[in-house]
Amino acid sequence: MAISDVLVRIRKERNLTQDDLARKLFVTRQAVSRWERGETSPGIDMCKLIATTCDVPVTLLLEMPDGDFCQSCGMPFFQEKDHGTEADGSPSEEFCSWCYRDGAFLEDETLEELIERCAPGMAESCHITLDEAVSFMGALLPTLERWR
């Protein structure tokens, strides 16, 4: 679901006007209106504030691609070869080939180390700044199976 539709739904479920939500987020009513019409989108840090303010999971606001994605790094599964492998050689349903092979994680790393390692690639491939990639991963990854 597009973030514009999610924002409208969240706001209406909480019986808030655009002005009410704008005041809670310290933005203008026009900013909320543009987000809801899909003219612009709130940045990652604003999505975190909206999630906290409206008591919804931040993943509801982060526009993830449709389909499954790695429960360690968040990478979408586009092809069968993107899946890691279990100890018996079968494809992993949860983890990608860059994180998981033969039933084990390839790197013994902390969440912070994974973000540091992966954020530059995400920034480049998604045409966003490194800070935005770090912020996005910092919001998404703690919600994934490996890091819960």
TrEMBL record:
Keyword check for DNA-binding: yes
A single MF term (Gene Ontology): DNA binding
Top-level taxonomic group: Bacteria
Database matches in Pfam families: HTH_3, Zn_ribbon_2
InterPro entries to which the protein is assigned, alphabetical: Cro/C1-type_HTH (IPR001387), Lambda_DNA-bd_dom_sf (IPR010982), Zn_ribbon_dom_put (IPR025868)
Entries under Gene3D superfamilies matching the protein: lambda repressor-like DNA-binding domains (1.10.260.40)
Positions of the HTH cro/C1-type domain: 7-61
UniProt keyword annotation of Repeat present: no
Residues passing through the membrane, by range: none
Keywords linked to the UniProt accession: DNA-binding
UniProt-recorded name of the protein: Helix-turn-helix domain-containing protein
Organism this protein belongs to: Rubneribacter badeniensis
